[in-house]
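pipeline/complex-builder :: batch 7 item 3
reading input block
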Amino acid sequence: MASVSDRAESYWMDSTAPTAYPPVDGDVEVDVAVVGGGIAGLCAAWELARAGRRVAVFEADRIVAGTTGYTTAKLTAQHGLIYDRLRSSLGADTARWYARSQLDAIERVAAVAAELGIDCDLERLPAFTYATSADGAEQVRAEVEAASAAGLPASLVTETGLPFEVAAAIRVEDQAQFHPRRYLLALADDLTHQGGQIFERTRITDLDEGEPCRLTTESGATVSARDVVVATHYPIFDRASLFTRLVPRRELVVAAPIAAADDPAGMYLTTEDNTRSVRTAPYRDGQRLLIVTGEHFKPGTEGVEDRWHRLATWTRERFKVDALAYHWAAQDNTTPDRVPFVGPFHPGADHVYVATGFNAWGMTSGVMAGRLLAALIGGAKPEWAGVYDPRRIHVKAEAGTFLKANLAVARHFIGDRLRTSHVDSPDELAAGQGAVIRLHGERCAVYRDTTGTLHAVSATCTHLGCTVAFNDAERSWDCPCHGSRFDPDGSVLHGPATQPLPERPL
Ligand code: FES
């Protein structure tokens, strides 16, 4: 199958220089240790440094190069059809606080970008959620009413900038979009000028909660901190069994240059067609880069390459696109009530905080999380703290998704062990193919690379023991239970796993 585009890379990554912060080379003592250098971790660190705390960020790979480097980078409080759902399941107050906190995050980015003079292509635009079906239009109408009641500047429209008709859309004014890496790399730079420290290629492997807390790095260094923020996307330490309440999903992105005259001039989303999200960004030669996201699926699901081609076809059929320039993928975690977990990690946590479960809205939620955690660590309690508190349990709102997610994990844990592979021997694998094959009595993840060389690693995920599956488009081993991803050589691409899949002899 032909490649979707010339570059299997995110535009945000491709258009910025890589970072080169040093790894930790000795013990560290700070007020706050932030684990994870994505948007939530960096925003928390920056807010804390600004409040006069001694802060250090520890990133296992490179900062702003995980999910934050692969987002669609919409800064909006209009999160699909959420307000009607929030109001009916969690109440009008929760919907209002949610809206207010997310709007606050947009204004925070605008204010900080202006104050620090960050050139991050920040553009103020309306955000739309549209439907093309009659049923969908009914849901949109209900959403307009709920979003307005929650305080969003929302209206019902049928005219949009899209080059096709919609049955109805909610339009929310004065939202924003930006270049996430340009913004966050500048924030990181400013953090170091305020005395904050950033360590890359520094994996934290252990956390001892106490006064102070102690973290251990892979290299054996110790970090002492009064407070710890775990902002690793999927939490690497799970003291509250959050893994039973987080469902990972992967989403695909394609991007293509379009003429400025064809710019739909807004940020768009529909939950139809397995979700389609559209925005543009400034691009070279006066063009705009059209960025289309969709086709979400559970990690470990087969047929990723086909999904990518479906998304590319959808894009070509609706926009004047000559050729796709980029394609990439991102991973999100969904919470049962669709509200992120931001706050004290578990019921007994005095000094350990978590930020996770952004439900595909990581830009505003990441900025909000940074603000909220900095406030909590400083002893304040913003009005919306309770909405995001990870210790909440909304039995009615969570029960269905919770049960479904955990049944799926149980099914994978047991069923995938019993499943027979479509391949009996590594000899049957063509170049670029991978399969779970029993070798020497053990299930192994075997991959033949494009030069014909075979690689074999254990197929048992090092997080909690589910069996990984091959992702044919990204050439990775993905775990269907909580979304850990591994390179064919076994190294960790995406947590919650922190340990590689051990190599196995062929
Ligand atoms: Fe949890 Fe694999 S990610 S078992």
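note: Residues 92-116 form the longest helix (25 residues).
queue -> next item
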